[in-house]
């Protein structure tokens, strides 16, 4: 989700990234608000971290619950992002955090230029990878409907929709961008 960055095998998240995304984030208040929604089923502890609160939410309830949840967060003056993907996964993260912003942070930290950076994805929680900057993007052929819909509505020269699935789609995209023969 772009909420934690680990460098060189460290078991401790990068402190610069953590500081950058911490502004305006209040995990306890997020948990307090979400506790009022019985439709939200907490995901396992392995899916949670200090900057990500994750739930399962049935697709049938999502259209009703998500707007109510956003309203409650606004009332609490919480500036957060709600990401709903795969028809079940709901993640709440700081507004200054997502996969795209994490990619930008690392690219700039290590001095990579956008043209030398490639992101790959298959679901709605990957949209931020393709919606920011001029990095190349590969959407694999087995992508979830929410990502395919986003791509249809946001075509761009830096984003390639592969026909092949999984790793085959990534290889296809790398060939398309001339990064692999």
From TrEMBL:
Please give the biological process terms from Gene Ontology that the record holds: sucrose biosynthetic process
Metabolic or biological pathway, per its Swiss-Prot or TrEMBL entry: Glycan biosynthesis; sucrose biosynthesis; sucrose from D-fructose 6-phosphate and UDP-alpha-D-glucose: step 2/2
Segments forming domain Sucrose phosphatase-like: 1-178
Which co-factor is required?
Answer: Mg(2+)
Q: Which SUPFAM superfamilies match?
A: HAD-like
Tagged with keyword Hydrolase: yes
EC number(s) reported in the record: 3.1.3.24
**Which top EC class is named for this enzyme in its record?**
hydrolase
One MF term in the entry's GO annotations: sucrose-phosphate phosphatase activity
Keywords tagged on the record = Hydrolase
Q: Which reaction does it catalyse?
A: sucrose 6(F)-phosphate + H2O = sucrose + phosphate
The record's annotation in Pfam families points to: S6PP
**NCBIfam families in alphabetical order:** HAD-SF-IIB, SPP_plant-cyano
State the similarity comment: Belongs to the sucrose phosphatase family.
Report the protein name in the record. sucrose-phosphate phosphatase
- Species assigned in the record: Richelia intracellularis HH01
């Amino acid at each position: 989700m772009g909420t934690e960055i680990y460098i060189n095998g460290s078991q401790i998240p990068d402190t610069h990234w953590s500081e950058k995304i911490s502004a305006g984030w209040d995990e306890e208040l997020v948990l307090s608000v979400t506790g009022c929604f019985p439709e939200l089923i907490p995901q396992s502890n392995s899916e949670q971290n200090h900057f990500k609160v994750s739930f399962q939410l049935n697709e049938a309830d999502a259209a009703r619950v998500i707007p109510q949840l956003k309203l409650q967060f606004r009332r609490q003056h919480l500036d957060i992002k709600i990401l709903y993907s795969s028809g079940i996964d709901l993640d709440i993260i700081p507004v200054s955090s997502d996969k795209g912003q994490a990619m930008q942070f690392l690219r700039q930290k290590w001095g990579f230029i956008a043209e030398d950076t490639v992101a790959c994805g298959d679901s709605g929680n990957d949209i931020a990878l393709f919606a920011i900057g001029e990095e190349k993007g590969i959407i694999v052929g087995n992508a979830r409907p929410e990502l395919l819909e986003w791509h249809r509505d946001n075509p761009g020269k830096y984003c390639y929709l592969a026909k092949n699935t999984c790793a085959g789609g990534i290889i296809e995209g790398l060939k398309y961008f001339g990064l692999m023969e």
